[in-house]
UniProtKB/TrEMBL annotation:
The chain crosses the membrane at residues 259-276, 283-304, 310-331, 352-372, 378-397, 429-447, 638-657, 664-685, 691-711, 723-745, 751-771. Pfam families: MMPL (PF03176). InterPro entries: MMPL_dom, Mycobact_MmpL. Keywords: Cell membrane, Membrane, Transmembrane, Transmembrane helix. Its main location: membrane. This is MMPL family transporter. Residues 193-423 form the Membrane transport protein MMPL domain. It comes from Luteibacter sahnii. It is a multi-pass membrane protein. It is found in: Cell membrane. It comes from the Bacteria.
Length: 779
């Protein structure tokens, strides 16, 4: 079968490229839901071996995921309230919000009391339990003191329904009363020394991580806030919610993408114009690279269903590596002069490009094997992008570069390359590498490690400070640690949680959990017996009613009221069904799971203390998601040296197959030495080693091996112009440094670590590449 002509191949590839571009445009902009993902947590791996624990982490994330919590503050109470009302009305007019709560609807406070009256004898606080259990407890004396106390505005149970105040005490301990906010002028208001704070809650009509929803919601909030501040000077709006963290991550990623993409594009363009002195090579190089990026975006979205902004920033840096393939083809054209033939050029560079592609893909494939969504997505993006960019050299570029080059590579670049090649080749270079390896040892010894999850997730400090203030004022939880309580049924879960919360109360640690709202059946039975004044085994309802009626009458309560209260004894237990049917508990339903519950600490983030409080309690464990991810980072980092060693072995075998065993070590030496020197440099710089540094070393191996291959394969074809082949290698290296190196300036710590390691590794490897051409033998 006759092979396709250059033009036929180019037409086929162009048609496929057009389809890719249309598909990419549809995936990014043609659907109602954007595939761009700004949720950094979505890029993290599951860390809990217990599936229930992982589900609990998800429940907590979803509990406030699509809400804005806004605290409108002003030194003047009326100004704060008016500003909150106006802010709420302005947000409520925008359809991006499903609901906005500023002014409370007409609300009968008895709705917080009436549902509990049938269960009042079953619901006691810890302090009332202790009082009732005190030997010689005198109910008449307690009631007499209560009747003689001055009563304020009673928003709780009436005296007849709760003469001892036990139900009132219970209601005071419910979660909705845990913060400083109180209903005032139909607003949830808190008063502090510096003024008043009013809470406004806005629920989004879509996901916090949807790019379009983010932009509309934040735009509406900014406009409403400006109007409120203009009308009421001195007003401040504190904010928290997933949408703000997602928007901050998006803004940082966009800044990084623009910085890396723009600077690397301009730098690469200037470099190619200098090297080739023509616009055509520049156009060809960017067409090839752009097609690689388009193919990468399509593949990533198809495989993962989304494209994370972290991957997009990494993709902007991929420009510097994907352009290597077209640069080598352009260099072959420049070396050929007037004897240039596109097909011969393809045959000339094909072995080097395929071997270089294989070593690069090996490094990325190792990333893809790590069960870490962030790294896997970046790896798939790179694998697809590199493959498409390389294919474009074989199928598209020959048709675009049919004429000979106008001029050879720029003479200053060739002279510079030749000068360094003479220094960095031969036995002297090998000896110098050995000396430098010895000098690198102290850097290795100084090397520490850091597995903190915040190297990936590092939210703006201002957002964290605002969230902390809102937690203090509103009484909401929000730490990253919680206790998970598990059992075979609901009763066992509640009893186990009561054992935990008893410890928390003794340690004076505030908490939010189920048993503050729903005691176990066992605890409720004990409460009923304590009210009676007997143990559960000796309680008799008729006798207890008589005791209650007698105590109430002796304190001076009207007989009818005393009789009604006594007749209500013992009432009915408060069940899980009752709890789920109570509207006031709707915001807290995320605390209950099937045969499990969540207990949140309030105001204490000392992990060691929180873990100690759960020690020895059956079914109780402290869940610390950040610590779990950090431990996972450490686990992967510890084994990464084995993966890196295995990759070196595989690349060495590939080189031995291509160049022979005696010559393979020379080709492998530059990337291997680049890894050694990069790690030592990190030690000398005081940069602790992270998982992302180690993963970048995988890419140093893949990318660095390309340079040794390019030089060894290209030197025979540029023998008439010494230094020209290495000039092409330096050209590729500088383009990579212009892109990958700029990641060191990223706002994301993980990408900073990637960028710094690649900057060092690629730099060292490119400088050491001449060693690979020394003493060349024909395989």
């Amino acid at each position: 079968m006759k092979p396709l002509s250059i033009v036929a191949r180019a037409l086929l590839f162009s048609g496929a490229s057009l389809l890719m571009c249309l598909c990419c445009a549809w995936l990014l902009f043609g659907r109602s839901v954007s595939p761009l993902q700004t949720d950094l947590l979505a890029m993290l791996p599951p860390t809990e071996r217990n599936a229930v624990a992982e589900e609990a982490v998800g429940r907590l994330a979803r509990a406030s995921g699509d809400r804005m919590l806004l605290l409108v503050a002003n030194a003047d109470d009326n100004a704060a309230k008016d500003a909150a009302r106006e802010l709420g009305k302005a947000l409520g007019r925008d359809p991006v919000f499903a609901s906005v709560i500023a002014e409370l609807p007409p609300f009968d406070l008895s709705q917080l009391v009436t549902p509990f009256l049938p269960h009042r004898f079953h619901l006691l606080t810890a302090s009332d339990r202790a009082l009732l259990a005190t030997p010689g407890f005198d109910a008449t004396a307690v009631l007499t003191r209560r009747l003689n106390e001055p009563f304020g505005a009673n928003a709780g149970p009436s005296l007849g329904d709760d003469p001892f105040g036990w139900l009132q005490h219970w209601l005071d301990r419910q979660p909705w009363n845990s913060g400083a906010l109180v209903p005032e002028d139909d607003l949830l208001t808190a008063h502090r020394d510096d003024g008043s704070d009013v809470l406004v809650i806005a629920t989004l009509a879509g996901s916090s991580y949807d790019d379009a929803v983010q932009r509309r919601a934040l735009g509406a909030l900014e406009a409403a806030e400006r109007a409120a501040v203009a009308a009421h000077p001195g007003t401040r709006v504190l904010r928290t919610g997933a949408v703000f963290y997602a928007a901050a991550a998006r803004a940082g990623a966009e800044r990084d993408t623009h910085l890396v993409g723009l600077v690397s594009t301009l730098g690469i363009a200037a470099l190619l114009l200098f090297a080739f002195r023509s616009m055509r090579p520049l156009l060809v190089a960017f067409v090839s690279t752009a097609l690689g990026v388009v193919g990468a975006i399509i593949t990533t979205i198809v495989v993962f269903g989304q494209l994370h902004l972290l991957t997009l920033v990494f993709g902007a840096a991929l420009l510097g590596e994907a352009v290597d393939y077209s640069i080598q083809y352009l260099c072959a054209r420049a070396h050929a002069g007037t004897g240039w033939q596109p097909e011969r050029g393809v045959r000339q560079v094909r072995p080097a490009l395929l071997l270089a592609l294989a070593t690069s893909l090996l490094g990325y494939a190792l990333l893809a094997l790590v069960p870490f969504p962030a790294l896997r997505q970046m790896a798939v993006f790179a694998i697809a992008g590199m493959a498409v960019a390389c294919a474009s050299v074989f199928w598209l570029l020959p048709a675009m570069l049919r004429r000979p080059a106008r001029a050879p590579l720029a003479e200053p670049l060739v002279r510079l390359a030749l000068g360094w090649q003479r220094i960095a080749s031969g036995r002297r270079a090998v000896l110098a590498i050995a000396v430098l390896a010895v000098a690198a040892l102290p850097g290795w010894w100084r090397l520490g490690h850091d597995d903190d999850v915040h190297q990936l997730i590092s939210p703006p400090p201002s957002l964290d400070a605002q969230a902390a203030t809102i937690r203090d004022v509103a009484g909401f939880g929000g730490g990253s640690q919680f206790w998970l309580v598990e059992g075979t049924d609901a009763e066992e879960v509640l009893q186990r949680e009561e054992a935990l919360t008893a410890r928390l109360d003794r340690a004076h640690i505030a908490w939010t959990g189920m048993t503050a709202m729903l005691p176990s059946r066992k605890r409720q039975a004990e409460n009923v017996a304590l009210v009676c004044g007997h143990g559960p085994a000796h309680a008799d309802d008729a006798n207890c009613r008589d005791r209650l009626r007698s105590a109430l009458g002796a304190a001076g309560l009207k007989p009818a009221i005393a009789q009604a209260y006594a007749d209500a004894y013992p009432g009915t237990p408060f069940t899980l069904d009752d709890w789920q049917a109570t509207p006031a508990y709707t915001p807290f339903r995320y605390l209950w799971m099937d045969h499990a519950s969540i207990v949140l600490p309030q105001g204490n983030d000392d992990v060691a203390t929180l873990r100690d409080l759960a020690n020895g309690l059956p079914g109780v464990s402290l869940i610390d998601k950040p610590a779990g991810i950090s431990a996972l980072f450490g686990h992967y980092r510890a084994y990464a040296s084995l993966w890196l060693g295995g990759a070196l072995l595989l690349v060495g075998l590939a080189f031995a197959w291509r160049y022979g065993a005696r010559a393979a070590w020379r080709v492998l030496l530059p990337p291997a030495a680049g890894i050694v020197f990069s790690v030592a440099a990190l030690g000398y710089l005081g940069e602790p080693l992270t998982l992302f540094h180690v993963m970048a070393l995988m890419l140093v191996l893949g990318v660095g091996a390309n340079y040794a291959v390019f030089l060894r394969e290209g030197e025979p074809h540029a023998a008439d112009r010494p230094g020209a082949a290495y000039a092409g290698v330096l050209l590729s290296a500088v383009t990579a440094l212009l892109s990958f190196g700029l990641l060191a300036l990223s706002t994301m710590p993980a990408l900073q670590h990637f960028g710094l390691t690649l900057l060092l590794g690629i730099g060292f490897t490119a400088l050491l590449a001449p060693v690979s051409a020394s003493g060349r033998t024909t395989a």
